[in-house]
Amino acid sequence: MRQLRALQATFTVHGFHRNNYAISKLIAFCALSPHGNLSYASLLFNQIEMPNSFIYNTLIRAYSRSSQPHLALHYFDIMLRDENVTPQNHTFHFVLFACANAGWILLGRQMHCWVCKNGMILADGHIQTAVVRLYAGCKVMDDAHKTFDEIPYPDVVQWNVLMNGYARCNLASEALRVFRYMFVIGVEPDEFCVTTALMACAQSGALGQGKWIHEYIKKKSLDFDVFVGTALVDMYAKCGCLYLAVEVLEGMPKRNAFSWAAMIGGFAMHGYASEAIRCLERMQVEDGLKPDGVVLLGVLTACTHAGLQEEGLLLLDNMKARFGILPRHEHYSCVVDLLCRAGRWDDALARIRRMPMKPLASVWGAVLSSCRTHKNVELAELAVKELVQLDNGDIAEEAAAFVQLTNIYLSAEKGEEACKIRRMFGERGMNKPPGCSMIEVDGISNEFVSGDVSHKDLPQMLAILELLLPYLTTKPYH
């Protein structure tokens, strides 16, 4: 930027600051280069008398990918008012991306209607992808899939956008169904598609499908980069195959902090605290990598699951001095969970009071969970009270908290208090969050939700009841 400012001064001295082609190059560097300055690009734009479409598109593109996507719409609005320029296909692609980034579904629908009305969506693959990404990013997957189905010949990128949308909406089974359908119509997935599919396998515990994808990567000699390798480590770790996760990690040609975080998270999930701590040391010694907040959270989680109280407290207290990382809310929440599991509630409450930020649901949820194990009714009531008073709390979290409090009352033989909460559920129209389980059969992950019985399931339900009938008592079933 220092060199660019000197160059701009030279342009001004020789009168090139009135040349749109010359200024557009300066704006492109400021807006798109990682060494640029987007705010400075806006200042340069303000000095142009008649900006062309390239300059508009550059700023719209840059802001659509930034933390201020609303400014992309600001420059789009200025462009529409400018009689000397006309929006192009690229313009709408960037505007749709800004809507997706900001989560503006209504404005995004208007842009979708605009491009359909002008026939752009039929001829431009980038706009098609942007529309699918818009709906997927805003978690409107029905519209995302409908738009995808209207694309005559979707490319690999568009398949991946749809799969990624399902995965990010926690609809892993749908994501894997899309992945399998790619093979049915003869589309070969690339490294990005298999990474998304592996992420869906990790979510749903589809180990068989994940192993098949691993074999496919080997067979097709796909680029075994750090993203594919990390996705495999994460998938095997979350599916419980730690030895395969370690094998993949050791065989990766290059590893980053996310790779180690996935492995540490796997060890933490299964209670191997010493292995998680060893990975923290190895990533620094072997790969020269500095752990980030995610890695340290994984180590803290491992300490929590293994009951390593002193190690967890020492790590939290020395995060800033040793690693230069300021503890965030999730780190404090993990240590509160560690203390509560050990029954050290006074220490846990003292930690909560000393937190530099307001404690959120995860902190009081950790307190509440421990109260059921130790039958601490008084502290459970305090935790529920704090959870209900949270500004950003939602109905589902509130209902889950009251369900836990009911169970604590019952375990402490306080049936009258439990009945009061159940009556309150009915009066306030609250529902208990349904239980959910998943099982993989023949490589396909199946999800079962309590109380979810559709008409297509009726024959199977009748067959199951017929098998169970001889074992049921004559008493009414509740």
Automatic annotation (TrEMBL):
The keyword Chloroplast does not apply. Keywords: Repeat. The keyword Repeat applies. Transmembrane segments: none annotated. It holds the Pfam family PPR. PPR repeats lie at residues 52-87, 155-189, 256-291. Gene3D superfamilies: Tetratricopeptide repeat domain. One of its GO terms (molecular function) is RNA binding. One of its GO terms (biological process) is RNA modification. NCBIfam families: PPR. PANTHER family: PENTACOTRIPEPTIDE-REPEAT REGION OF PRORP DOMAIN-CONTAINING PROTEIN, PENTATRICOPEPTIDE REPEAT-CONTAINING PROTEIN. This is Pentatricopeptide repeat-containing protein. It comes from Hevea brasiliensis (Para rubber tree). The lineage of its organism: Eukaryota, Viridiplantae, Streptophyta, Embryophyta, Tracheophyta.
